[in-house]
Specification:
The protein is mainly β and 319 residues long. It has helices spanning 2-18, 188-192, and strands at 35-49, 61-75, 79-94, 100-114, 122-132, 154-164, 171-184, 202-203, 209-211, 216-233, 236-247, 256-266, 271-281, 287-290, 298-302, 306-318.
Length: 319
C-alpha cells in the first residue's frame, strides 16, 4: 500500500510539472473596439375564456396586449450608452360590456456610463427616463370624465450618480443623489383639479377660476435603482426592476416605489408565456372611490399601493 501511495504521488508531481501551462493560465479581456448592438422585439399576449351552458356561470372574455421593444446599446473601452424604447397597449372585452383598456405605456430610457479603469466595476453614470401613455384612461364604468390622457401624466427623470455592475446588462445598482423629477399634466381640466400632484386651480366662491392649475410639477431628490436579469432554468428567465425616489423639499423620506418582476417562459422560437407583476406607490397620485353622497360621482381617497398582475400566452418575434 505504501508503495502504491508513493507511486501515485510521484506520478501526480510528474504530471503537474509536465503541464505547467495549464496551471498558470491568466485570462485577459480582449478589447474588440467600439460596438453598437441593436435588438427589436414585437410581442402579442392573449388570454381568453369562453362558457357554453356552464352551470357554474361565467362571462366570456378575451384580452390582448401588444408590445414593441427596441434597444440600441453602445460600448467601447471606457464608455457605455444603453438606450431603449418600449410601447405597450392592452384591451379587454367581456360579454355585454364595452371594450376597456388594460395597459398603455410609452417609455424611453437612456443611460450613459463612464468606466474610469478597464477592470473597474464602478461607473460614473447619467440617466434619463421618460414615460407617458397614448389614450384616455377612465375609472370604469364612468367613461364621461377621463382621469388620464396623453402627457397627463408624463414623467421625466434626469440625474447623475454612480453605478455598479460587473456585467452592467445583467446586474446593476445605481444611486443618484441629485435627480430631477418632472411631472407633466398638459390636460388643463386635470391640471385644474390638481391631478398627479400638480398645483390645482384657484376658484372663487362662485366656482369661477381665478388662476389656472399648473401643468408641471418639479422635484429634486434621490433616486436609487436596481436591475437584475437571470436564467432560473432552461428557457425560464426572470427580470427584476426596482426604483425608489424621495424628494428633498416635499415630504423628504416619503418614498415613491416602482417595482416590476417579470418571468418569461420560452416554449420555442416564437411561442412564450409571460407572468408579470408591477407594484407602484406614489404619494402624489390619489385614488378615487364612489361618492357616498352623490350617485355617479367619485371622492378622493388618498394615495394607495397600486398593483397589476398579468399572465398570458403569446408570440414574440425578434428582428
Amino acid at each position: 500500500m505504501r508503495r502504491l501511495i508513493l507511486a501515485l504521488t510521484i506520478f501526480s508531481i510528474q504530471f503537474s510539472f509536465a503541464q505547467p501551462d495549464s496551471l498558470f493560465i491568466i485570462e485577459k479581456k480582449v478589447y474588440d473596439g467600439p460596438q453598437w448592438k441593436q435588438t427589436r422585439k414585437a410581442t402579442v399576449d392573449i388570454s381568453q375564456v369562453s362558457f357554453t351552458n356552464w352551470n357554474a356561470g361565467g362571462t366570456n372574455s378575451i384580452s390582448a396586449i401588444l408590445g414593441y421593444l427596441h434597444k440600441a446599446n453602445y460600448k467601447d473601452k471606457f464608455f457605455f450608452w444603453n438606450n431603449s424604447f418600449r410601447v405597450g397597449y392592452g384591451v379587454n372585452k367581456q360579454e355585454s360590456r364595452e371594450l376597456r383598456k388594460t395597459d398603455d405605456i410609452v417609455e424611453i430610457i437612456s443611460n450613459l456610463g463612464y468606466q474610469p479603469a478597464q477592470d473597474s466595476k464602478w461607473f460614473y453614470s447619467a440617466r434619463l427616463n421618460f414615460k407617458t401613455q397614448v389614450t384616455n384612461g377612465y375609472n370604469y364604468p364612468n367613461r364621461d370624465n377621463p382621469i388620464s390622457r396623453l402627457m397627463a401624466p408624463g414623467y421625466l427623470f434626469f440625474g447623475g450618480g454612480m453605478e455598479y455592475g460587473k456585467n452592467i446588462e445583467e446586474l446593476s445598482f445605481y444611486a443618484s443623489p441629485l435627480t430631477l423629477k418632472a411631472t407633466f399634466v398638459l390636460d388643463q381640466d386635470l391640471a385644474n383639479a390638481g391631478s398627479f400632484g400638480v398645483e390645482g386651480a384657484v376658484f372663487d366662491d362662485n366656482g369661477n377660476i381665478i388662476r389656472e392649475g399648473e401643468n408641471i410639477r418639479r422635484e429634486v431628490g434621490i433616486l436609487v435603482t436596481n436591475s437584475y436579469a437571470m436564467e432560473l432554468a432552461k428557457n425560464i428567465k426572470a427580470t427584476n426592476l426596482l426604483s425608489v425616489y424621495t424628494d428633498y423639499i416635499n415630504n423628504f423620506g416619503n418614498v415613491d416605489v416602482d417595482w416590476r418582476l417579470n418571468f418569461d417562459f420560452k416554449v420555442n422560437s416564437f411561442v412564450r408565456a409571460t407572468l408579470e407583476s408591477h407594484l407602484r406607490y406614489d404619494d402624489d397620485v390619489k385614488t378615487l372611490e364612489p361618492s357616498s353622497t352623490v350617485e355617479g360621482e367619485f371622492d378622493e381617497a388618498g394615495a394607495k399601493v397600486q398593483w397589476k398582475q398579468f399572465l398570458g400566452i403569446g408570440f414574440a418575434v425578434d428582428f
